[in-house]
Amino acid sequence: MTDTTVAPSTPIDRKSSIRAFLGQLNASTWIGVFIVLALVLAAIFAPQLATHSPARQSIMDQLALPGSQFWLGADQFGRDIWTRLLYGARYSLTIGMSAILVALVVGTVIGMIAGYVGGRIDIIFMQVMDVVLAFPSLILGLALVALMGATLTNIIIAIAFTATPAFARIARAGVITQRDREYVQACRAMGFSGPRILFRHIMPAILPEVMVMASLWMATAVRTEASLAFIGLGLAPPTPTWGGMVRDGFDNILSAFHLAIIPSLAILLLVLAFNLIGDGLRDAIDPRLKDAS
User: Fold this and answer.
1) Secondary structure (H, E, C), 98-124
2) Is the four-CA dihedral 104, 138, 285, 38 of positive or negative sign?
3) 80 phi and psi angles, rounded to 5 deg
């Protein structure tokens, strides 16, 4: 018996299964993917799409309405909202994706080790995760950023810390389900090491559920970053962030309501896109959830 006989699938099977999986995604999922890709491209090409510098101020253009000079208007400092919206997408996407990537890696590894080893390791790891889960993610993120300082790295770490327990729990549940399967027992009989079984054979089986969790938590990360910026714990001005733009807009909500509405709609659109992707992935992985709903 060779190593390939106990692997979940061959490379050819994986390619065909990926094509079959993509074919199961519904239209709303592709809408979400299109929105995210459009925002990513807008963030990447922000210098080419922007009409002004994001830090440019003009007293003469304070609270200017949308028009030919300022497509979405100008804020209380005369800064172009369209330009700041494009550059703000960079920070929202960078913070959200980086934080969830860190949480995915750390949480998945913790959950996989806890589920596979069991015993005291499982109890200790998961009790620590339960303690973190006991705090609301926004409150915990706020406390961490307040303690460490509102820098880009610290905000990413704070959001990743709040999301890690969710990935640990779902990875642990998946490993517990898989660790007694026949292919795992065959790997043990062949003398494969625990890490090899865990990361080469079990991890591909639980990865789809982890990716669904990642897409759903991406929306939470974007909301958390915007909330931190709104209450003054985001990146320091004049760095453009969507949450900071909403906060600035509230100071002039009666005279220029579009200052708060436009970045709020951008946050809503991005959160909606990630939720559409997550729901579609979940339905494709387990059609029973779609039928039940």
Assistant:
1) HHHHHHHHHHHHHHHHHHHHCHHHHHH
2) negative
3) -70, 125
Residue 200 lies in a domain: yes
266 in a structural domain: yes
| Cβ neighbour number for residue 12 with a 10 Å cutoff | 8
Do 56 and 80 meet the contact criterion of CB atoms below 8 Å apart?
A: yes
Quote the domain boundaries for residue 153.
Answer: 17-58+70-292
Give yes or no for a contact between 115 and 172, defined as CB atoms under 8 angstroms apart: yes
Mean pLDDT per 10-residue section of the chain, whose length is 293 residues: 43 53 77 94 94 86 84 88 94 94 95 92 94 89 91 94 94 91 89 88 89 91 92 87 90 84 94 91 68 48
Q: How far apart are CA 206 and CA 17, in angstroms?
A: 15
What is the count of structural domains for the chain?
Answer: 1
Rounded distance, CA 67 to CA 173, Å? 54
Under DSSP, is residue 260 helix (H, G, I), strand (E, B) or coil? helix
Q: Which residues of 112-128 are buried (b: 16+ CB within 10 A; e: fewer)?
A: bbbbbeeeeebeebbee
74 - beta bridge partners? 80
* Residue 161 parent element (H or E): helix 152-178
Residues 6+ apart with CB under 8 A from 14: none
Residue 275 is assigned to a structural domain of this protein: yes
Question: Within a domain: residue 98?
Answer: yes
R_g of the chain computed on alpha carbons: 23
- Report the CATH number at residue 96: 1.10.3720.10
Contact by Cβ (8 Å): 150, 210: no
Q: 103: which 2 tokens?
A: 């949480």
Place of tokens 């387990």: 286
